[in-house]
Amino acid sequence: MGTNTLWAFIGLLIFVGIIIKMGVPGMIASALDKRAKLIEDELDQARRLREEAQGLLAEYQRKAREAESEAEEIVMLAKREAEAMEKEAQAKITDFVARRTKLAEDKIAQAEASAISEVKGAATDLAVKAAEQILAKKMEGKAGKDLLKASIAEVGSKLH
């Protein structure tokens, strides 16, 4: 080795000695320890945050399932109410149709009875007039007229 190399080597040893004497390796180790501690703390915090996030996720998933089941229950109740309302409406319609039919039948029966009564009344009046004319032709005189009036009154009272 040459003298320059020897001096460079000696300078290097002195430099390393000064650095060791000043405690640079301790400071480097301390800085690395601090940095490792900081990284470890950050990892712990990240783990805690991850656990909290997983807990929140599980809670939200549970709430979502509860909301979904509640929504299904609401839909089921709404369907039941709609079916009940449909049945009630159907019953009301059936009842309404039955009442209207009964009312129409009653009106028809009343109209028939009225028509029959009018026809009977008209037939009675015609029969009375015809009988009156026939009897008037056959019976002449006061006795015939009296008998005719009595008969007409009797027929009229029995037919009406």
TrEMBL record:
Coiled-coil zones: 29-88
Subcellular location: Cell inner membrane; Cell membrane
GO CC terms: plasma membrane; proton-transporting ATP synthase complex
Domain of life of the organism encoding this protein: Bacteria
Entry keyword set: ATP synthesis, Cell membrane, CF(0), Coiled coil, Hydrogen ion transport, Ion transport, Membrane, Transmembrane, Transmembrane helix, Transport
Membrane topology term: Single-pass membrane protein
Transmembrane stretches, start-end: 6-28
GO molecular function, one term: proton-transporting ATP synthase activity, rotational mechanism
InterPro entries associated with the record: ATP_synth_b/b'su_bac/chlpt, ATP_synthase_B_chain
Function of the protein: Component of the F(0) channel, it forms part of the peripheral stalk, linking F(1) to F(0). The b'-subunit is a diverged and duplicated form of b found in plants and photosynthetic bacteria.
Family of this protein: Belongs to the ATPase B chain family.
Subunit structure: F-type ATPases have 2 components, F(1) - the catalytic core - and F(0) - the membrane proton channel. F(1) has five subunits: alpha(3), beta(3), gamma(1), delta(1), epsilon(1). F(0) has three main subunits: a(1), b(2) and c(10-14). The alpha and beta chains form an alternating ring which encloses part of the gamma chain. F(1) is attached to F(0) by a central stalk formed by the gamma and epsilon chains, while a peripheral stalk is formed by the delta and b chains.
PANTHER family in the cross-refs: ATP SYNTHASE SUBUNIT B (PTHR33445:SF1), ATP SYNTHASE SUBUNIT B', CHLOROPLASTIC (PTHR33445)
Name recorded for this polypeptide: ATP synthase subunit b
